[in-house]
Amino acid sequence: MKKELDPKQVKAIQEKLKNMSPDELKKLVKQQCLFCQISSGKVESRKVYEDDELLAILDINPASKGHTLVLPKEHYQILAQIPDDLASKLFNVTNKLAVILFDVVKAEGTNIFIANGQVAGQKSPHTVIHIIPRYEGDGVGLAWEPKKGDEKGLDELQELIKDKTIQLYVKKEQPKVVEKQIAEEEEYVEERLP
Ligand SMILES: [Zn+2]
To answer: Is residue 133 one of the residues assigned to a domain?
Structure first.
C-alpha cells in the first residue's frame, strides 16, 4: 500500500537513497522485503518445504486451492539474477511440489507462474514462483488472447533471438540483465520508508 507523503518528504527519501552504497541499499531492501522477512522468520508463514536455500509456503490469498509459493531465501529481485545452480534447484523443487499438489489437492492441472518486473504483475521485489493448481471451471484468469503474428516480424525476431542464444551457448557470452528492472527495487523501498 502506498503511503501519502508530501513532496518534501519524497525528495528527502530520494536523496537518501541516492547517497547509499549498493550494499546499504540492499540491506534496506531486505529489511523492507516481505519475503526476506518470511525467510528469516520475522513474519510468520505456512511453510510446506524448507532447506538451507529455498522455502515453499502456502499463499494466504490463494488464486485456487493449494496455491503455493516457492522462493530462494536469499534476496534476488528478478529471476535473471539467480545463479544457474540455484535456479535449477528452484525449478526442481517447484516441479516436485507441483506433483505433490496434484496428489494432495487433486489438482487437474497446474500453472507455474513467475512475474518478472512490475509491468508483469510483480508485487514484491523478491523472486517467487507461483504454483497454481487448476480445476475445471475454476475461473482463474491466466489466459491471454492470441493474436495472429506477421510472418516478417516473426522471421526477424527468430533471427535476433537465435543470434543471442548462439552467443550464450556457443560463444559463452552471458546476456545482460536489464538494468530497468533492477531500478524498481528503489521504488519499492521508497514507497515503504517512513
Ligand atoms: Zn527479499
So the answer is: yes
Find the 145 Cα to ligand 1 centroid distance in Å. 33
Total number of domains constituting the chain = 1
> Measured in angstroms, how far is the CA atom of residue 116 from the centroid of ligand 1?
14
Contact 192, 32 (CB under 8 A): yes
DSSP state for residue 81 in the 8-state scheme: G
| Residue 3: predicted pLDDT | 57
Separation between Cα atoms, residue 66 and residue 64, nearest integer Å: 6
C-alpha 35 to ligand 1 mean position (Å):
5
Residue 88 lies in a domain: yes
pTM for the model: 0.84
Measure 18 CA to ligand 1 centroid, in angstroms: 20
For the chain, 194 residues long, the average pLDDT of each consecutive 10-residue run is 70 82 84 93 96 97 96 94 96 97 95 91 92 95 88 94 90 76 73 72
Distance 137 CA to ligand 1 centre (A): 34
Contact 57, 43 (CB under 8 A): no
State in Å: Cα 49 to ligand 1 middle: 18
**CATH number of 29's domain:** 3.30.428.10
What residue numbers bound the domain in which 23 lies?
7-149+177-192
Q: How far apart are CA 106 and CA 65, in angstroms?
A: 10
Ligand 1 centre to CA of 73 (Å) is: 8
